[in-house]
Automatic annotation (TrEMBL):
Keywords: Membrane, Transmembrane, Transmembrane helix. It comes from the Bacteria. It comes from Oceanivirga miroungae. The keyword Transmembrane helix applies. The chain crosses the membrane at residues 15-36, 43-62, 77-95, 100-119, 131-151, 158-177, 204-224. This is Uncharacterized protein. Pfam families: TMEM164.
Length: 229
């Protein structure tokens, strides 16, 4: 019989997996001191992309994730959630050093932070899966730090506008994908938390959720601007 693990906010599996991911991430960040910063960034970019591929492979072929008694489907592993998009953009940014990608990463960074500290409650069978999952998220934050420290990247208002436009495009894409595949990318097909359904209709919730994310992007941009020096 397969051993089943349980993930919940700040239980031992959550804390141990997140700490392990942070240790690996900080080790990789510190290693940058002894290497050429641009070449090492390219290496990290490919590492992040490979980590995301590993995350998808484990989830689709090895895992049996169950959330609220329902098994996760293969289509749920498609990279259309906010954090998944950020993971891919982080890898591409470190390879290309494109400043607009950096702007998206920094202004959307509240998403992986929330996911790391407030994970969904679910069961899983591959003991190392959460480590890989959290590693992809901690490396988003590492990418923001790397660009700030080693490439002296700073946000501009134009970069902020690009990040908002891309966010709206991502929401639009998620809406159509969700209708086609019955998924819940960007939480536009169903409520992010069931309790919200008691207070808001789905239509009002969608509008409120999009506005809340734009506010999150704006707040993160404002904070980053204060740190630009």
């Amino acid at each position: 019989m397969e051993k089943v693990y349980y993930m919940a906010s700040f239980n031992s599996n959550h804390i141990n997996s997140m700490l392990t991911a942070w240790i690996i991430t900080l080790f990789l960040l510190v290693l940058a001191i002894v290497f050429n910063k641009r070449k090492y960034a390219t290496f990290l970019g490919y590492f992040i992309l490979l980590s995301k591929i590993a995350d998808i492979v484990i989830r689709v072929f090895l895992e049996k994730i169950k959330v609220d008694g329902v098994y996760s489907q293969a289509v749920d592993a498609l990279p259309f959630h906010m954090c998944n998009i950020l993971i891919i953009l982080s890898g591409i940014y470190l390879i290309t050093k494109n400043k607009y990608l950096y702007g998206i990463i920094v202004t959307w960074i509240f998403a992986p932070i929330l996911v790391m500290f407030i994970p969904s409650n679910f069961t899983y069978i591959t003991w190392y899966y959460p480590i890989v999952f959290y590693l992809t998220h901690t490396m988003i934050i590492m990418t923001a730090i790397y660009g700030f420290v080693y490439f002296k990247q700073r946000l501009s208002f134009k970069m902020y506008l690009v990040s908002v436009v891309v966010l709206l495009l991502a929401f639009t894409n998620a809406y159509f994908v969700n209708n086609k595949l019955k998924t819940n990318f960007f939480f536009t097909h169903d409520y992010v938390m069931p309790v919200i359904s008691k207070y808001l209709s789905l239509k009002v919730y969608r509008i409120a959720y999009i506005i809340a994310n734009i506010i999150g992007v704006t707040a993160t941009y404002s904070l980053a601007r204060k740190l630009r020096k």
